[in-house]
Write a structure and sequence with these properties.
Keywords: ATP-binding, Nucleotide-binding, Transport. It comes from Sulfurospirillum tamanense. With 257 residues, the chain is of the alpha/beta class. It has two domains: 213 residues, Rossmann fold (3-Layer(aba) Sandwich), CATH 3.40.50; 40 residues, no CATH class. The strands form two sheets. The protein has a six-stranded mixed sheet with strand order 5-6-7-3-8-9, sandwiched between helices. Strands 2-1-4 form a three-stranded antiparallel sheet, with helices on one face. α3 packs across α4 and α6 packs across α7. The longest helix has 14 residues. The protein is globular.
Length: 257
């Protein structure tokens, strides 16, 4: 069964068309990246998959069900993890919130706590279990929120711009983590970081009202991109994507030929 099956889907906000005749089939074996310009419909498609809004025409099924009937199969990590950074809650407590079943007397069970600890370990954040969420870096917070999503034990993980405001090294680490997670569950990620996306995604969907699917680049191209990502020192731009070479900052001497 396909994890996601979209057929001839369209959606508009008032008279403003956002998605037009979109069709997409996705299986959990792929790390699918959704790219495209601002306003192209990326976030709207995520909302439709999550069941927050409904298609105005066409069909959308998640694991053979309507999105509203498939909520237990989905886990979601929002773009903004900077909310309430001064609230005195630890990384472990944030992850524990991913155990969504009703509790007796408001307490979490030992099984819930073990599940949260395992999720933190899976994202490499066990050492920060007792750290306040506001004390963590942007990349570390994203890992914590990914761990919270993993606690839901869903079949498909959806992420909206998980590397926004994260430096190049943090972007690489997060996508390496998503690549590992994709071994056991589906991963769909909306991203503007085309340089990173091309290095890790196995399928790429470009959306600008209409959707076009692309296979991942060749292995040789991916290795060149990943090499550039590993060697980047705080700077990464589309020039590297085209040439697979690192740009030279004006303040640095160009390498000898």
């Amino acid at each position: 069964m396909n994890a996601l099956h979209v057929t001839d889907l369209s959606f508009a906000y008032g008279t403003q068309s956002v998605l037009e005749h979109v069709s997409l089939t996705y299986t959990c074996k792929d790390l699918l990246a959704i790219i495209g310009p601002n306003g192209g419909g990326k976030s709207t498609l995520l909302k439709l998959i999550l069941g927050l809004i409904e298609p105005q025409s066409g069909t959308l099924q998640v694991f053979g069900k309507s999105p509203k009937d498939a909520t237990s199969d989905l886990a979601y990590v929002p773009q903004n993890t900077n909310t309430n950074l001064h609230f005195p809650i630890t990384a472990f407590e944030v992850v524990l919130m991913g155990c969504l079943k009703p509790r007796s007397f408001g307490f979490f069970s030992k099984a819930d706590k073990d599940k949260a600890a395992d999720a933190l370990a899976r994202v490499g954040m066990s050492a920060f279990s007792n750290a306040k969420i506001g004390e963590l870096s942007g990349g570390q917070r994203q890992r914590v929120f990914i761990a919270r999503a993993l606690c839901a034990q869903a079949k498909l993980l959806l992420l909206d711009e998980p590397t926004a405001s994260v430096d190049t090294e943090g972007q690489r680490h997060i996508f390496e983590l998503l690549q590992t997670i994709n071994n056991t569950m589906g991963v769909i990620v909306v991203s503007h970081d085309i340089n990173v996306v091309l290095g890790y995604a196995t399928k790429i969907a470009h959306i600008n009202r209409q959707l076009y699917m692309h296979d991942a680049p060749s292995q040789a191209t991916k290795e060149a991109i990943l090499s550039t990502l590993h060697n980047a020192q705080g700077h990464l731009c589309p020039v590297e994507l085209i040439s697979a070479h690192t740009c030279t900052h004006p303040d640095h001497k160009a390498p000898h030929a």
